[in-house]
Amino acid sequence: MLKILVTYAVQGEFVEIKWPEVEPYYIRTGIGKVKAAFHLAEAIRQVQPNLVLNLGTAGTVNHQVGDIFVCRKFVDRDMQKMTDFGLESEIDSSALLKEKGFCQHWTEEGVCNTGDSFLTELTHVTGDVVDMEAYAQAFVCRAKEIPFISVKYVSDIIGQNSVKHWEDKLAEARQGLSHYFNVLKERI
User: Fold this and answer.
1) Can you give the pTM of this predicted structure?
2) Domain that holds residue 7
3) Which positions carry the signal peptide feature in this UniProt record (predicted)?
């Protein structure tokens, strides 16, 4: 039986995974990089999963509400300005996923940009989607040598009343992610 640790930031993003021969464990991490890293590390210690699957909502600049992105590449926008000082700001989790043979047929490629602020103004960001947790989770998983993947539902367009749109779109995001996981992507 394959153990999958499913992470999500807030209860409104919870989606139950129903896949054959998969034992899912769920952890609500809370919002932000610190909470996400802490709660994920604790859950990994307890569950010892084969795979960590992060799911949830994200903002975007260049795409449409309702789009879904499978992210294997992550950018920490808070640390991007510090790369001249030798600090890391990007993680690519695809090599370990490929080595283990997980999620290879999930083709909706995207780059997730993570930071500790909810972006409400249009600014230059690297990536397809913007969240507040995925980079931290990718960092923890890489350190523990556990494959990590993040699937994000675009819930809001940055600069267009994002906080209100995000709150209004949570139910649609749950439906869209549930359909994606339990109908379209039933194989790991």
Assistant:
1) 0.91
2) 2-184
3) none
Strand partners, 161: none
CB-based contacts of 22: which residues, under 8 Å, 6+ apart? 1, 2, 4, 188
* Residues 16, 45: Cα–Cα separation, whole Å: 22
Token pair 């995001």 is at which residue? 173
The per-residue pLDDT for range 4-24, each reduced to its tens digit, is 999 999 999 999 998 989 999
Cβ atoms 5, 53 nearer than 8 A = yes
H or E element, residue 177: helix 162-179
Q: How far apart are CA 26 and CA 177, in angstroms?
A: 15
* C-alpha closest to that of 26 among 36, 37, 12, 15: 15
Number of domains, the chain: 1
22-37: per-residue pLDDT in tens? 999 999 999 999 999 9
CATH number at residue 25: 3.40.50.1580
For the chain, the farthest-separated pair of C-alpha atoms sits apart, in whole angstroms, at 47
Residue 59 to residue 79: CA distance in whole angstroms: 19
